[in-house]
TrEMBL record:
Signal peptide: none
Keyword tags: Cytoplasm, DNA damage, DNA repair, DNA replication, DNA-binding, DNA-directed DNA polymerase, Magnesium, Metal-binding, Mutator protein, Nucleotidyltransferase, Transferase
One Pfam family this sequence matches: IMS
Family from the record: Belongs to the DNA polymerase type-Y family.
GO molecular function, one term: damaged DNA binding
Record CDD domains: PolY_Pol_IV_kappa
Cofactor: binding details: Binds 2 magnesium ions per subunit.
Gene source species: Kineobactrum salinum
Gene designation: dinB
Protein name: DNA polymerase IV
Keyword presence, tRNA-binding: no
Active site positions, chain numbering: E111
Major site of localization recorded for this protein: cytoplasm
Amino acid sequence: MAAQDPATTRKIIHIDMDAFFASVEQRDHPELRGRPVAVGGSAQRGVVAAASYEARVFGVRSAMASVTAKRRCPQLIFVPPRFDVYREVSQQIRLIFARYSDLVEPLSLDEAYLDVTRDKLGIGSATRIAQLIRSEIREQTGLTASAGVSYNKFLAKVASDQNKPDGIFVVLPQHGAGFVATLAARRFYGVGPKTAQRMARLGIHVGADLRARDREFLQVHFGKSADYLYQACRGEDHRPVRPDRLRKSIGGERTYGEDLCEPAALDAALVQIIDLVWDRVSSRQALGRTVTLKVKYADFQQITRARSVPDPVRGKTEFSALARELMQSILPLEQGVRLLGLTLSGLCEGPGAAPESVVAEPMPVQQVLQFQADTETCAR
């Protein structure tokens, strides 16, 4: 890695709340403290939206089927999600961020990047700023956060996971390349289980193994990710913190306690999803050209149907008509439906299409805000 110029080196902090949804529930319900908690789902059906650290000891993770989670942890306590509360707490946290930097890029309700190169309060140390932010979060919300501090976004994000929960880790410019060399390949952003398995078959287990491969090799085996991997394994990442990053899509979905089989039940469910998503679209004054219907059947088979139009969808009537057209394309049903979702994507700028700072939210079981996630999320 080329030597860092102190005059141009960025100071980046990644703040990640610890088991955010579950920690809020344990804070507000003392009887849940110290016990394995799953937010969302039920013992019989659904998907875990978040798990407390006590539950994670048993292998319970977000996006895991509830029945699997209960099998791994028989004493698991399921609680319904309270997204209004989570959003309120998230806003408290963002007000804290704003005291220290104007360059804040939220990734979800519970994590964000801050660029503190321009020291707003004249503190002089990114590490000290991260410590102060964590302290204020604890004092004001009763929750803990972990922080990663480094000279780029990739390393800051990896570092925030290093000493979880309630920890801080710093990667200095002179240590970046060495730190990445020993980093497990699966911890590179965007490397999910399948990619990690492919890397293992190629003899790539840590960052140093990636660095030993040339760009051509990486392009052959990893396609569009090649340039990112080539730079990341050298401790390089030139992406700026973008406070005006635009949302890629707005959507919602619902998992049902009983499969939807009758036309009347399916129609009523679709109306609810249309209302849910259009409320979100209207509140953000968003413009989009593509409507996508997501359906998961009783046997867990999942399909999507999409329709794009030349001009942005500007009213609920048009959005509803497109959604119903997509639903008609899958009728008659061959089996019951356990999940329905709608998404408006192809978002664009225009009158009323204001930049959106909240890019993604974790996927809960019911009334989820579904966004096109960047890639597979690193375990926290």
